[in-house]
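Dataset card, provenance and construction

Sequences and ligand SMILES were collected as paired inputs. For each pair, a complete structure of the chain with the small molecule in place was predicted and serialized as structure tokens. The example below shows a pair involving magnesium ion. Curators did not alter the output after generation; any descriptive sentences attached to a record were derived from the structure itself.
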Amino acid sequence: MLKVEGLMVFFENALALNDFSMEVQEGELRGIIGSNSAGKTTLMHALSGLLVEIKIREERRGGERITILGRILYDGEDITSTRPPDRVRRGIVLCRERHPIFPESDVLENLRIAGCRIPGSQRKEGLELALRLFPQLAAHKGKKAGFLSGGEQQMLAISMALVARPRLLLLDEPLLGLSPFMQRHLVEAIGRIKEEAHVTILVAEQFARPILPFMDYAYVVENGMVTLSGRGPELMEDPEIKAAYFGV
Ligand SMILES: Nc1ncnc2c1ncn2[C@@H]1O[C@H](COP(=O)(O)OP(=O)(O)O)[C@@H](O)[C@H]1O
Ligand SMILES: [Mg+2]
């Protein structure tokens, strides 16, 4: 479904992604594991098209700071240079790091805002799907998003992405800053998005321990490079991974 071939991203002379190759098969949950500054968000922005958008905006202002080399293929088509709306139309939807929601609006309003550019019938389906997968949100439909707990805000952020009916959902550090209990709850919800809604998912995470066992495949990234990859349960047993990411 998704194939990344030798992706290189430079910010000025700094290399954020270095000859990065990976793929995702339809129906899978795959992961990108890496510490702070490894290049996870840069990859997510490259896949969602946000990086192309930022590059175009900077160039309009006269800068030439971002360089993107390599190829991103989706359903066999080269989408490396297409912009975010094109990718959303194709079903690639990103839920960004640190749940950007509208704190002054209630849950339902947030979901409606997320769906404002989605065609009517699709939006209704997406909204129903989100509320079915996150019953906790359905129970707080009228509550201001700013008053939700951190975990509920993260659920809302993911729901906002679901309203667009993704085929490939990109989640950038969905577990960040949540309690272990909430992390387990979210991991379970992510599993249901995959199994019940048949959405293919790519998750970037630093402290991946709670979700790694459920990953069909994961890539470990250091300094923008893949240093190790394998099936989630196998990586769970890897001594280097344990030392670097589990703190044992
Ligand atoms: N807009 C940007 N301008 C300059 N450097 C950036 C920008 N975004 C990311 N970087 C650099 O790229 C590297 C990877 O960052 P990032 O993708 O955010 O890592 P992660 O999400 O894994 O923490 C870092 O060294 C970071 O400083
Ligand atoms: Mg990041």
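Derived descriptions for this record:
The mean pLDDT is 93.
Strands lie at 2-11, 14-24, 29-33, 66-74, 77-78, 92-95, 168-172, 200-205, 217-222, 225-230.
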